[in-house]
Design brief:
Layout lengths: L1 H14 L7 E5 L3 H11 L4 E8 L8 E8 L5 E7 L17 E7 L1 H13 L4 E5 L4 E6 L5 E6 L5 H32 L1
């Protein structure tokens, strides 16, 4: 089974010019609070901090980018801006619009993160989706963070998922269109 999965991944990688996520970046209003959460609580090391002048503004504004390493070498990044993200004006968008899922290995690791979040007073929800456990919480910036155990995939599932991806999307689009038509009719 592992050989089949490896062959499938190699074929996909060869055809895909995008190799992996280098980083995902999100706005934050307090870089230190963000560092504390990701480095001290979750154990993701801060690997770079870069301060840059804002080339689009003439008021001396600067950005501070912080980068937290994930075990595969990719990073989760945050940026704080001196004049755009004042704590009093920072409004996190709905977490529905801002979330990231991080794979953490086995269910025991998910439970370990739950204990760490509980000890730090961070509200979280542990969900059991059958095979993998998933732990959800909000980071200090309103970003929904999902820590999930690795879900073993079979070659058959990968083939089925790829084969149905477009038709599944069409099904969703049809459902969505009907939903909005009915919602308009209810008003």
């Amino acid at each position: 089974m592992r050989e089949d999965n490896a062959v499938c991944r190699e074929m996909t990688a060869a055809a895909n010019p995008v190799r992996r996520i280098h980083h995902q970046a999100y706005a934050c209003w307090d870089s230190e609070e963000t560092r504390h959460f990701y480095e001290d609580i979750l154990g993701m090391p801060l690997v770079a901090t870069i301060m840059l002048d804002d080339p689009l503004r003439a008021d001396g504004s600067m950005y501070c980018h912080t980068f937290f390493e994930i075990a595969d070498g990719s990073v989760l990044a945050f940026f704080e801006h001196t004049s755009l993200f004042h704590p009093k004006n920072f409004a996190a968008r709905s977490g529905f619009h801002r979330s990231v899922a991080l794979e953490v290995g086995v269910n025991a690791m998910v439970r370990q993160f739950k204990r760490k979040l509980d000890a730090a007073g961070v509200t979280n929800v542990l969900m059991n989706h059958g095979v993998p456990l998933t732990l959800r919480c909000n980071d200090p910036n309103g970003l929904i963070l999902e820590l999930t155990a690795t879900m073993p995939t079979s070659l058959a599932y990968g083939r089925t998922s790829r084969a149905s991806a477009h038709s599944d999307l069409q099904q969703w689009l049809f459902y969505r269109q009907n939903w909005w038509q009915n919602a308009v009719g209810m008003e």
